[in-house]
Specification:
Elements: E1 12-15, H1 19-30, E2 35-38, E3 50-51, H2 53-60, H3 67-74, E4 82-83, E5 89-90, H4 94-102, E6 110-112, E7 115-120, E8 123-126, H5 131-136, H6 142-157, H7 176-182, H8 187-197, H9 211-227, E9 232-235, H10 241-252, E10 256-258, E11 263-269, E12 276-282, E13 285-288, E14 292-294, E15 303-317, E16 330-334, E17 345-351, E18 362-369, H11 380-386, E19 391-402, E20 411-413, H12 424-438, E21 453-454
Helix pairs in contact: 1-10, 1-12
Length: 455
């Protein structure tokens, strides 16, 4: 990029090309802001990138096998797009709404995830996707199925302004435990509703007001109803397509991108406690803006640890997951109580059908919150479900969050990606940063749905 052709003054500077940062860059560009987007890495995605097999070996293995041996075993490097942070999109979730609102669906193709499974007493069971599957599911006995049916009917028919649909329950006063008790649901049913449908990672939600759980279950049911099979979508060629899609959106609206451009110095106006962000100095020159949006790696001194760490294990398989038919993609949730833990374990499975690995291979990515001093041992129950593993890559990441909201110094930082299996917490972060930067909430316009997913 010719330095003389680059403007030096912008409305917003964005550092890092993680999914969070790229969405914000795209949204602000659409709003008419002049955006400069910089990344020290030479590829999109930041911590949430999709990488080739050779990049995966470089990142996780100290003594990788030779290129010839690797290609003989796993096929061409270019066939691999492996997510460093595995997540699926909820069909009716907020990220999908943002994709449709911005028309980024023009640049990214999606495929439906075949099924959602839950672990119970050593086996995996498909989470029912419709009434027929619920009736035939071995997860519940016949009387429990009737109670479950009444519970789901209440969820779907509930109307805020019609008291006769509330069944005497107040979503802002009753706890979720009280809601379950109202319908007489047993422990195993509560477990799969709370963990495989509401997607809570632990049981703390039981003693909290019911509204958040109600909204999560409703989102799950509406997402399943859209296409059937499962509530999840996944982008062809991996999650790395998402930041690239939003980068393209930003560029169309005048955004400028610079990859492989480390920050040499952050510039400030003012003194000590009152100093505000002014700009950045790079090898391509000095660029100014009244505010910056960045991932935690650019301002580590302005972030704090949440006290949690996530362990992720990327497993390469040459066979489908045992007990799930020949599914080309699925999610497995291992509820914490089933394996004497405090947090659930998630397994996201994708395959060559998604153009993320070579033909005949599958990727199973396990993630959970670390609870002990031997985190790899915590994943044993998940490894057992996968069958023989050809190759395994493991990493641990600390979860960081900003110390302040950015209003003092105009430095607005995103949160690290958590262990959850979906993007809802990330889109909450996007909406929160957008509000702090612009002063008004993100309003997603109603428009004709352009999302098409292959099954």
């Amino acid at each position: 990029m010719d330095q003389e052709t680059i403007d030096t003054e912008y409305d917003v500077i964005v550092l890092g090309t993680g999914i969070t940062e790229c969405i914000l860059s795209g949204l602000l560009s659409v709003d008419g802001k002049k955006v400069l987007h910089i990344d020290k890495q030479d590829h999109y995605g930041g911590e949430s990138a999709s990488v080739t097999l050779s990049q995966l070996y470089d990142k996780f293995k100290k003594s990788p096998i030779s290129k010839e041996d690797r290609e003989a075993k796993f096929g061409k490097d270019r066939d691999w797009n492996v997510d460093l942070i595995p997540k699926f999109l909820m069909v009716n979730g907020e990220l999908t709404n943002i994709l449709v609102h911005t028309d980024v669906t023009r640049y990214v193709d999606f495929k439906q995830v075949t099924g959602s499974y839950v672990f119970k007493q050593g086996k995996i069971y498909k989470v029912p996707a419709n009434e027929y599957e619920a009736i035939s599911s071995p997860l519940m006995g016949i009387f429990e199925k009737r109670r479950m049916k009444k519970f789901l009917e209440w969820i779907s028919s509930y109307k805020e302004d019609e008291l006769n649909t509330h069944q005497g329950l107040d979503l802002d006063k009753n706890t979720m435990e009280e809601v379950y008790a109202k319908f007489g649901l047993g422990n195993s049913t509560k477990e799969f509703i709370g963990h495989a449908m509401a997607l809570w990672t632990n049981d703390e939600y039981l003693q909290q007001i019911a509204r958040p759980s109600f909204e999560r279950i409703l989102l799950y049911c509406q997402s399943v109803a859209r296409y059937g099979k499962s509530p999840y979508l996944y982008p062809m060629y991996g999650l790395g397509e998402l930041p690239q899609g939003f980068a393209r959106l930003s560029a169309i609206y005048g955004g400028t991108y610079m990859l492989d451009t480390p920050i040499e110095e952050v510039l400030y106006d003012g003194e000590a406690e009152s100093k505000k962000f002014k700009g950045v100095k790079t090898k391509l020159g000095t660029f100014t803006a009244p505010l910056v949006i960045a991932d935690p790696t650019y301002f580590p001194d302005k972030c704090k640890s949440t006290g949690q760490k996530v362990i992720r294990a990327i497993c390469v398989l040459n066979h489908p997951i045992p007990g799930a038919g020949d599914s080309d993609s699925l999610q497995i949730i291992i509820p914490q109580s089933q394996v004497n833990r405090k947090n659930d374990i998630y397994i996201a499975v994708v395959s060559a059908a998604h153009n993320v690995c070579s033909k005949g291979h599958y990727l199973a990515i396990i993630s959970t919150i670390v609870e002990t001093s031997q985190p790899h041992v915590e994943l044993e129950s998940a490894f057992k479900l996968l069958g023989p593993i050809e190759e395994k890559f493991m990493g641990i990441a600390e979860i960081f969050e900003p110390k302040e909201d950015g209003s003092k110094d105009n430095i607005f930082l995103s949160r690290s990606y958590d262990a959850s299996s979906h993007f809802e917490s990330m889109t909450d972060d996007v909406k929160d940063i957008y509000f702090r930067v612009t002063g008004h909430p993100l309003v997603l316009k109603q428009r004709e749905d352009s999302l098409q997913a292959t099954t």
